[in-house]
Amino acid sequence: MRLSIGLLVALILAAVIALPAVGKEDRAPSFTLEKMEGGRMSLKDILKDSKAVLLDFWDTTCTPCNELLPHVQRMHEAYGEKGLKVVIISEDTSLTIQDVKPSIKSHKYTFQVLLDPSHEVANQFGAKGYVPYIFVLDGTGRIALRHKGYRAGDEKDFEKSIRDLLGVKDEAKVDSAAGGEAAKGK
Questions:
Q1: What does the alpha-carbon distance between residue 124 and residue 127 come to, in Å, rounded to a whole number?
Q2: Which stretches of the chain are DSSP H helices?
Q3: Is 119 left (phi over 0), alpha (psi -120 to 50) or beta?
Q4: pLDDT digits 0-9 by tens, 35-45
Q5: What is the pTM of this model?
Q6: Which has fewest Cβ within 10 Å: 1, 8, 78, 153?
Q7: pLDDT tens-digit series, residues 85-129
Q8: Residue ranges of the domains in the chain?
Q9: CB-based contacts of 19: which residues, under 8 Å, 6+ apart?
């Protein structure tokens, strides 16, 4: 009997130790990065006054990343006034970081761009080596959606998650033409 009680206690302790801390995996890690336009921005800054955040780990040489960005811009335009903040985190290294600003400016993207050339923040999110890697956060920093890679149509999943967090019932009329203006009928 003593052996079985001891075994039971050991099994319970092992199970409790193996359990992840409640909510730890589903919260965005704290970070501060340089902004493309100069200055610094932290996760706390991003979350301030937001209901939802779309974080996109991106790199100028990544074809799927660049195919996704027009959709991200349209979501930024369609839902920005409703509480969405869009932040692109460039994973470009010292070899290509000089291409970030010209790439963003040439497409007239208006979302915030942060620079993570050492991949430190990507490591914190478990996204190093994977671009694009998209995270949708609620206004408290809880990760509502994480998505690795991009194929045409994936943006609908991101948008649904964003709409749910914002409490938007009617789907925004988003122009599907690349680089087109978003949010007709806000």
A1: 8
A2: 2-18, 43-47, 63-79, 100-106, 120-125, 155-166
A3: left
A4: 999 999 999 99
A5: 0.79
A6: 1
A7: 999 999 999 999 999 999 999 999 999 999 999 999 999 999 988
A8: 25-166
A9: none
